[in-house]
Amino acid sequence: MSFTLEPQHCRQSPISIVTNATVARWFKKFRSRDFNQSNEPRGRPKTQVDNDVLKATVEANSSRSARELSLMHIVSMQTILTHLAQISKVKKLDKWIPRESTDAQKEEA
Q1: Are 33 and 43 within 8 A, CB to CB?
Q2: Alpha helical stretches, state H, the chain
Q3: pLDDT tens track of the chain, all 109 residues?
Q4: pTM score above 0.70
Q5: Using CA atoms, how far apart are residues 57 and 73, in angstroms rounded to an integer?
Q6: DSSP states of 7-34 as a string?
Q7: Which of 8, 39, 51, 109 lies at 20 to 30 Å from 30 by C-alpha?
Q8: Rounded to a whole number, what is the largest CA-CA distance in the chain?
């Protein structure tokens, strides 16, 4: 018995809820009797932003916007914001400054 995904199976609603690749992955797990519903770890691409370089850039000119930094490092603005959070920098009064941790956050670290 073979299983193929026909386009009409995925056209029952105007909104596509899952892709053919997702259904195929589910069927492969089902066929191998793997009923574990947890997500397998997937490899993440290596980051393109070096936090040390970003920190030096921000400290050299703390008035640069996240957009300017994203253009300098050729990454998305969300990536820059994520890395700024990793190096504990927040924007206040149009400057990037070190983030102040609360007592609860200090205890967790």
Answers
A1: no
A2: 20-31, 51-60, 66-73, 77-86, 103-108
A3: 455 555 555 555 566 678 888 888 888 888 888 777 777 777 777 778 899 999 999 989 888 889 999 999 999 999 999 999 898 888 877 777 777 766 665 566 5
A4: no
A5: 10
A6: GGGG-SSSS--S-HHHHHHHHHHHHTT-
A7: 8
A8: 66
What secondary structure letter does DSSP report for 37? -
DSSP 99: P
User: Between vectors from CA 102 to CA 49 and to CA 107, what angle results, nearest 5°?
Assistant: 90
Contact at 8 Å (CB) between 62 and 93? no
* Rounded Cα gap, residues 94 and 73, in angstroms: 20
Cβ contacts of 50 within 8 Å, gap of 6 or more:
none
Tokens of 55: 């920190």
Tokens of 56: 């030096």
